[in-house]
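WARN retry 2 of 3 for item q-0093 after timeout on previous attempt; input resubmitted unchanged.
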Amino acid sequence: MKILLNRLKVSDISLIFCCFSLHFLIAIDMLIIVPFSASIALDTGTSSAQAGYLTAAYALSAAVISLIMKCRKNVNHEQKRILLLLAGVTITTLLVSVFNDFYLVLFTRLLTGIFGGALAVVNLNYLLLASNDSNKKKNTAILLSAFPLALALGVPLLLFSTSATNWQLGFQLLGGGFTCLLILFALYHHYQDSAGAESTASLAPALSTSEPPATHKALRFALLIITSAVVSTFIVSTQYPVMLITTLNIPDSLLSWCYTVSGIGSFLAIQAYARISLQNRSISYVITLLSIAMLVAIHLGFSTLEVVYAAITFIVFVIASSARTLIITTELISSLTVNDRVKMIGLQGAVQHFSVGLGSTISSTLITLGSDLSPDFTQVITVATALIMLTPILWWRNSGKETHSSDKPQSANSK
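OK item q-0093 returned
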């Protein structure tokens, strides 16, 4: 028995490490194209104006594959899909560093988005299937915290590593990282096979045959809350740096520090949330307080003329908005039944990609020019204020429905 417990402990830790590292590299692969895109376009003999297509190719293909990707309920099946998709994203990432034609690079990034988007969906579903019920919420939060950490540390470190060489080295390093993870996942799969799938069977929750069917109404409302959270965030987050640069002339070094500090702060916030057990009502209060913090940050930040003060409010906004979105996504995914969850995981990825584009588009249409031709963000702040507070309102309504439905069986049993 002691040997079995030790095996499970090591297996659980290695599983979380592999899944988190994979999500971390996927996030870097998605984000690093933004600073590399202009150099890639110029080096491949194309106008820098077309650099945005490289970012769009990955994002759109990832959104589409997330929408149509179907999660499975079998742990071993998902593990095999991870190995296949990881091999695909490894090959396509390495190929980017080889091609010298812009359209070949563009096509390769589109393929990378397909593999990367599908891999993110399967990786999250795999970790949840292999987690005990008591660890589902914590493991989901840990996995989702990989994105802000990649933004704060992964991307700057990769840019620093390639600053003295070229962008090709960046994709070679990423490909090397994916290769190492491919080996680790293959070894983990071999370890489970040699152990007779004992650890997987112990780690994975037993699926009840009486599992209720997926409820489309619950899924739609959950997706509505996520859409509200992401759209209200990106209406502001896409224009906050614009305001800092155009209105306050913030130095590049200070803006870079803002992203680093906010990314680390978001990572630490979600890690703290993952390790603290909170009741449903407490979660509702946290989401409300984070929404209020976002409002205070944008109203103070967009009204001040002090660069440092505005930079601090920007950091507060990024941490509060990131933590709010990650908490909402984690709570919704971990609270769903297995049938609902396997649908939700893919849908939420597609919805997030769509919401990012929608929020950015709305914010651009709301900006007006002042008499001195400087951008006026008044309408952006007004609409953002309404949408930011819509999210906790929807959350409280959803929490009220869950509380009401959970009380029904108790009252029925008491009779």
